[in-house]
Amino acid sequence: MNMKSNMDQIVGTIVGAASGDALGARHEFHQPLTDPSPLEMGSGGAFDWRKGQWTDDTEQSIVLLRQLVQGHDLVAPETLDRIARGLVEWALDATDVGTQTRAALTHVAPKHATAQAVTVAAQDHLDIYPTACGNGSLMRTSPVAIAYLDDEAKMIEAAHTVSRLTHPHIDALDACAIWCVTIRIAILENKLDVRDAIARAVSDPIRQALWNDRIDVAEESASVSDILNNGGAVGALQAAWRAVSAATSAEGAIESAVRSGGDADTVAAIAGALAGARWGVSAIPARWRRYLNGWPNLSIAADQPMQYRQLLTFAYLAGSGGQGHGGRRWPDVEDMGGHVRALAELPHAERVYMGAEGDIHHLPDDVDAVVSLSRVGSAFAGRREHVEFWLVDSWSANDNPNLRFVLKDAADTVAALVSEGRTVFLHCVAAHNRTPSVAALYLALHCGVDVDEAIRIADRQCGNNGDNAFLRDVVRAIARGHA
26 and 174 share a domain? Predict the structure, then answer.
């Protein structure tokens, strides 16, 4: 597996799930949404969630991600015990815990929590309620998928094993394995194919036929909201598949899932994992990512929950076996060492500066928002409102599969921040190509400047002529309505 080429999708699997979860949180238990307007992060809902706050779906996933960040094998006995203990500790104070998940986790004291203990409790619950098959293990299964991309058989084993901690019903086991393999196919083969995943993940021909029939039902449904019982593993998988398979973008897939009603946050989390795996984190809109937050609190202050940057770090390190980018453990490295400086104000734009990575430690006092088009260290991230984009300085469209989306999303994000009264610093590593490209697009789309003139202005302010004509041509196409 080419880890470098797949990291956009690997990270997208986790961020997509969290985005769907947080976007759907305030719509959980509601009727299906019929308003076709773009969905935005908001607060409220049955549990009075904060704006952008993820729920139990992502919270459980983080318990698994913590083990992967350390490079641990999820099916190793000692790792499973740590996962079990982590889930039990989480459930003690969690805002929302599903009925079946709670039955497995709250009958064991944290100091006595082992994988065997919670697995026995889960099986005891199933023995009493033999049809119990909630979606509580399916919602957290995406970390299993990114952990075993190079070993499908072990991925299936891990999906079953981790599900059994709380959800031992055969349908839940199958659902987790099928979804993990579907994610694997999306990442490694760049396609959506749940039927191939069924053939690989389910060995019994009778059950294969059953699952294919269930997929038929999902695909023949008029909309995601027509699929019943999305609080169960089967219904949630059907609804998530219907949302993703009918979409042409990660944004569209996640919004469709949120509109399902009922267990909207979980359907959207499951769908978001697959959508992120197919289209990448670069396809997840910044207007969602910038607000992501939730358990656990990663500082002494109780009002500072985990933020997007920390989730990105967990996802990247988990997907790289704890190694990070280039052996430097980016995004966790404190400083990327950029020294080029090119700070300048952007003409025809109020409250927008542009420059290079070396400028981030020397910004004017009035700058209170940063838009990064390149990797920055953790020592800088979080000091101000900070929005990061997955954008590679390359002449090849293969290196930026969502290039037009990312360029426009970055320009629109600058506009959104300015409209909020913020002063923005826009940068990449050296301000040669990415910075002037996005700056020019911002001028063209939001300041009424002709795109060719905007490109000349942005390049001149950065003190270069820009050697990546490919990026400039894409900017022209977007500005002229050909994107």
Answer: yes
| pLDDT on residue 483 | 52
Q: Beta-carbon neighbour count of residue 428 at 10 Å?
A: 28
Domain-terminating residue out of 297, 313, 328: 297
Claim to verify: residue 191 and residue 257 sit in the same structural domain: yes
Question: Hey, how many other C-beta atoms are within 10 angstroms of the C-beta on 150?
Answer: 12
Give the three-state DSSP class for 327.
Answer: coil
Given a contact cutoff of 8 angstroms between Cβ atoms, the answer to whether 390 and 281 are in contact is yes
Domain encompassing residue 159: 3-297
Cβ(436)–Cβ(354) under 8 Å?
Answer: yes
> Which portions of the chain are predicted below pLDDT 70?
1-5, 298-303, 322, 324-329, 381-383, 465-466, 482-483
Query: Between the CA of residue 362 and those of 21, 368, 397, what are the distances in Å?
Result: 37, 13, 33
Q: Hey, which residues does 232 pair with through a beta bridge? A: 134
Question: For residue 293, what are the CA distances in angstroms to 21, 22, 144?
Answer: 11, 8, 22
Cα separation, 118 vs 105, in Å, equals 6
Looking at residue 49, the DSSP 8-state letter turns out to be B
Rounded CA-CA distance 459/465 in Å is 6
| pTM, 2 dp | 0.95
